[in-house]
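Propose amino acids for all 154 sites.
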């Protein structure tokens, strides 16, 4: 599958769809450049946005640039720290990292929804889109999270 044939499901949140359209427009049939995505500027419209890179030649994912959202639906990401540090206990770090690795290698975005995210004593539905970016000779990722619907369950 190529990045321009990747399709979001009809159930994807509007903000995720809007960001995917922006990514496609900047990609012009290829992987867009990281410099085309200013996290500070874009976070006005996409508040849970982050750029993710790898450490050196290894495969540890690090937060490269993170929007200054008032409330993240997981542990607040810190620029320069490992992505795995932000995943709460009980969540599948391996599933997220595998998804990021696949997106980085394939150049094809990945969409994921979860309906069992536990945060602050509440369960809510989350959606995430992760897409590749070019940064010189290397690739990075850009990821957008969206809280789909908070649950009334405690």
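Proposal:
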């Amino acid at each position: 599958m190529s990045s321009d044939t990747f399709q979001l499901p009809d159930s994807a949140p509007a903000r995720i769809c809007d960001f995917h359209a922006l990514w496609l427009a900047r990609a012009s049939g290829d992987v867009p450049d990281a410099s085309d995505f200013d996290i500070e500027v874009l976070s006005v419209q996409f508040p849970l946005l982050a750029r993710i890179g790898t450490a050196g030649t290894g495969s540890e994912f690090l937060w490269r640039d993170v929007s200054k959202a008032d409330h993240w639906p997981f542990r607040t990401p810190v620029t320069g720290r490992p992505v795995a540090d932000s995943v709460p206990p009980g969540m599948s770090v391996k599933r997220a990292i595998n998804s990021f690795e696949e997106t980085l290698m394939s150049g094809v975005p990945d969409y994921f929804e979860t309906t069992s995210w536990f945060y602050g004593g509440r369960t809510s539905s989350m959606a995430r889109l992760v897409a590749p970016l070019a940064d010189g000779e290397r690739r990075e990722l850009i990821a957008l999270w969206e809280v789909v619907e908070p649950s009334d369950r405690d």
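Strands lie at 49-54, 61-66, 110-119, 122-135, 138-150. The mean pLDDT is 85.
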